[in-house]
Specification:
The complex is a heterotrimer of chains A (348), B (362) and C (308). By secondary structure, chain A is an alpha/beta fold. Chain A has eleven helices and 15 strands. Among the domains of chain A are: 65 residues, no CATH class; 159 residues, P-loop containing nucleotide triphosphate hydrolases (Rossmann fold, 3-Layer(aba) Sandwich). The longest helix of chain A is centred in the first third of the chain and has 16 residues. The C terminus of chain A is likely disordered. Chain B has two domains: 75 residues, no CATH class; 259 residues, ABC transporter involved in vitamin B12 uptake, BtuC. Chain B starts with a strand and ends with a strand. The chains are: A alpha/beta (348), B mainly alpha (362), C mainly alpha (308). Chains A and B meet through helix 5, helix 6 and strand 10 of A and helix 8 and helix 9 of B.
Amino acid sequence: MDEPTSVLTPQAVDQLFETLRKLSSEGTAIMFVSHKLDEIRRLCHRATIFRGGKWVAEVDPRKETEESLAALMIGREFPRTQRREHAPGAAALELVNLSVPADGPFGTALKGINLELHSGEILGVAGVSGNGQAELLEAITGEQASSDSGMVRLLGQPIGRLGAAERRRLGLVNVPEERLGRGAVPPMSLIENTLLTAHRQGMLQHGLVSQARAIAYAKACIEGFDVRCSGAAAKAQSLSGGNLQKFIVGREIRQLPRAMVVAQPTWGVDVAASALIRQQIIDLAVRGVAVLVISEDLGEILEMCDRVAVIAAGRLSPSKWVSDTSAEEIGRWMAGMFPQDAPELAAA
Amino acid sequence: MRGLRLVPRAQPSRAMLFIAPLLAVLLTLIVGLGVFAWLGQNPLRAFRVFFIDPVSDMSGFSELLLKASPLCLIALGLAIGFRASIWNIGAEGQMYMGGIFATGLAIRFHDHGGAWLLPAMVVAGALGGMFWASITAALRAQFHANEILVSLMLTYVADLVVKYLVFGPWQDPQGNNFPITVQFSDDALFPLFASWGWGAFEGTRLNASVFLTVAAIPLAWLFMERSFLGFQLQVTGLAPGAARYAGFPEKRMIWLALLISGAAAGLAGVSEVAGPIGQLNDRWQPLYGFTAIIVAALGRMHAVGIVLASLLMALLYLGGEAVQITLQLPKALSQVFQGLLLMFLLGCDVLVNYRIARRVAA
Amino acid sequence: MIESLTPLLASAVALAMPLILAALGELVVERSGVLNLGLEGMMLLGALASFVAVSHGGGLAPAALAAMLAGAAAALCFGFVTLTLQANQVAAGLSLTILGAGVSAFLGRQYVGFRAPASFEELPIPLLSKIPLIGPALFTMNLLAYLTLVLLAATAWFLYRTRAGLALRSIGESPVVARSLGLRVNRVRYAAVAFGGAMAGLAGCYYAVAQFKMWQEGLTSGNGWIALALVVFATWRPLRVAIGALLFGGVSAFGLYLQAIGVHVSTFALASLPYLATVLVLVIISSDQNMIRRHAPASLGKPFHDDS
């Protein structure tokens, strides 16, 4: 089984594990491929760890901690993200009764989504894969226009009918879940890929591109975000998932946004890069930026975010402080069982 | 192909980007020599008649430039669109429309023209091509209609419009009922180089329309390689998802690509009717609009490559005419070579992203 | 009314048949995920091959066979370049069109202007051909046209009622998944491409030996492109191809009919009707992107490296 739990609620994961344990007791051999260390520790009898395509170790995961497993995976101390205290500021990004019809027979309609994201806070949107996350991201970024311009507001300004480039100009950046083919153009160099979204950072003169400025920006992203590559001229497709993700995150953060939306920030990213990306997002919030994290990795949300809401079948639950909820409650909400019109909990 | 397989390269091979077109030319030549032999000709003599003789004197060289100029112009416009994966296959029809618009002015002001007439015709030609291309652009942008089929259908229609005009309202009353318009007045013709006292070009048909192409080359290069719009078009072609993510409006890209290539084709059209032909007639079907596609591909969608490729394609045209006169070989040979060249190029391009290796025995 | 409608319908059906042949072949190819724009080239090659066959004393069956072989051979060249060498399918299809037009013009120059010594003639089916209106249209056709109807039914049956057809359709939707299930993606696609070429060749044979009964450069005058548009119009379903072809045949027949009864419309305007109709049809169908997305083979035109 290859990463089987991203499409499951925590309750469903429990059921799956029960079934797997039963199968195993009847003699079935099960190979469980996953990056979710807590699940491996719960389920598996033995764990084999690979790094860089090479065998590293074989352990009994029940005797290990998440830290020791992660250390084996990256070969050194597992960096823990530093949470911090903060007081959220004014509302930076608001979704007001956001409704978008389903795009084709396989899409998910968004129904009456209300959300308030404040400067300096990190709000996580959890959910099982396929419940409208992609549609939500597109409605916020502008790739999908809203029927009413007031459905999406940035710093109080209605932007629902603006395109992606305009929203970026107003300070709303985003990191999509697909890197190659969306966040970056695979056969283009990192220099050219900075032009994709950061061209307003002084790279254009009378409609012509300033190579020097683009190179400087690319280099700054590479150095500031520890992107391992053969240089700024390296093609995007030659970078590993983690390094390309670091580059994209860096490119967006360096545009000094007011609000940022990230989808699946560490999907397919190695453990070390994941830690760096999460820390950068946390640091970004400390600087006063409003951050929205859409992720199917519940552990990541609970680790990084101040507040959490759940998206299920295109509807968004009310949000709760992470310290006030549990994985179990969120699991129930992921199945759609959340109160409909519960009042937003005021800042503690 | 037992025993061989294709292995993807880690990095596309830069060397192969240059070698593949040369390899394709070589393969086409080899097949060409074989065809000449099969037709009962001495291959080397036929090769000389086809490729060398046509450009061995100034007159031949002028004819080469005269054919390469519209090919280059159209191909530059097409390449801008092809890089965005917007396939304008109807450049031939857009060229006809450019010729039609220019002819309209030439006929209207045949007897009371002036120095302004030719520049007005040039503008009209560009507008004509843009107009015809805009139909395709609108249908693609608004209705998602496939631009290959629409632009191609419009080419057939444009051809019929030409025929309608030269058999009907624009037919020269003194033309003995031939499907031709009046010969353009001097104001409506591109001046010949020879008429400027440039001795070297005495007796050739080379005219000032070549300057349109010469001006277009650096402009096209600048647009494709250095402008942000050119970058946006490239992204649209390489990764449409990334173009959406970046907020590059798809409709704008479609219009841009089609209007630019349409204008280029229209300019080529006016340079033909106001150049060597001097009128509009129903025999004017040079198929430049299609050959330019091959030129763009062979030239790797880059300005310099396109210039070189257009010279080669023009040579193929001339060669076909030459062997028809000298060796009584069919003129369709040119088209065969052009098609072969494109197909060989597409085949050799595999070496850019793959290399050949032995299949390991199981 | 019936008296004037009958020849119109008969003419429409006759004009539709070669379009059905070419479009059916391309439909199967596109259902397997491959976009072959070279229909016009393959049809011209098939037309010439069949004309040459009858000119040298061959019968009608060898002519049809020669056409199919010529079309399939050309298609296999395209297949090699796109399936094995991973070339861009649009460009490869265009090169096939140019090459087919050039080669057929080149090889056919000595056959221009001659009448076909043998040709497919009308074969009325007894009794059925007497039915008013549709009798002369559907049951008084030549052998090749009857064969077209048979092929239409056979193709539909193959695609929707056989395992092989299901395999082909699944390859067209997702070659990656198909390969993981053990299907030989390239092998199936090669077969589909060859079939498409054979059908296009047969369509060319129809033009040369059944309809026009002669050969000249560019005999098919753009009908290959119209057949491509037909496949889109039919949303990749065989029965709809027939309906679309009939509509097209009707438009062309109507133009001829207007000329026959002496309406003063420019011949050029009438000649442009099929092309304008194609554009109109494309616009109507394509504007419903949801329907297109539902029916278009998901992997259409995308390169796939099958290293199985």
